[in-house]
Amino acid sequence: MIEGKQIFFTYGFAETDKNPVLNYVDLEIPDGQIVGLFGENGAGKSTLLRLMAGLLVQKDRGCQILLDGKPATQVRGEIACIFEEGTFLPDLTPKQYGDFLADFFPKFDRAYYDKLVKFFKLEEKAAKHMSRGQKAKLEIAAGLAKRTKYIFMDEPFLGKDALTRQDFMKILSGSLTGEETLVLVTHELEAVETFIDRAIVVHKGKLAADVEMDDLHHEGKNLMVLLKETVGYDENAYRDLFAEEE
């Protein structure tokens, strides 16, 4: 379970920042749930994801995020991150990267990793020489093959063409056993509409909406409607740009 209490974060000085990225947020995600974090650019969703994954350090205001009762730094072996920026080891080839991961992740499935690398047709060259899309595929292979309890994804569809996105969703669905807790950030609402269990909208540093997808669909709504309603999107705001001056 992921438990977050009074989550506060700012990139400035905590004592003087009047517009923190996250402003005392409480969050609880039970085991096995697939959660989507949505919102406008700069809303704080990626920051929240990185805090959960232990990649950012919170400002000391009594706030904490725990995974199974422990800080993320104490359960690294149970965390897989699939982020848009790609691998933190750009000098390694896919084979070398697999060797490295096998040493650090006790449940790393090397055979599955090799299958994914082959499926994605990744060449045996350093990640820094790969295209953006190839780097993303390498991170997908690495992240899923770690067989961790917690999976965090930030814009997993970025840089992927329509066919690759389709393959990714099939592979992701086939890789999960139902015991993993998966949290993802994406602007591709339609791609995850029927995949996630729960949707959270982050707006101005707060969790402005938190709804089970079954309940949302029962109301006859989808993710786009939820997002627009939550952030107060004005469908006709653009008309002012073309209005004739009187």
Automatic annotation (TrEMBL):
GO molecular function, one term: ATP hydrolysis activity
Name listed for the protein in its UniProt record: ABC transporter domain-containing protein
Source organism phylogeny: Bacteria, Bacillati, Bacillota, Clostridia, Lachnospirales
SMART domains: AAA (SM00382)
Pfam families linked to this entry: ABC_tran
UniProt keyword terms in alphabetical order: ATP-binding, Nucleotide-binding, Transport
Domain ABC transporter: from-to ranges: 2-229
Superkingdom of source: Bacteria
CDD domains found in the cross-reference section: ABC_DR_subfamily_A
PANTHER family: ABC TRANSPORTER ATP-BINDING PROTEIN ALBC-RELATED
Originating species: Anaerotignum lactatifermentans
InterPro entries recorded: AAA+_ATPase, ABC_transporter-like_ATP-bd, ABC_Transporter_VariousFunc, P-loop_NTPase
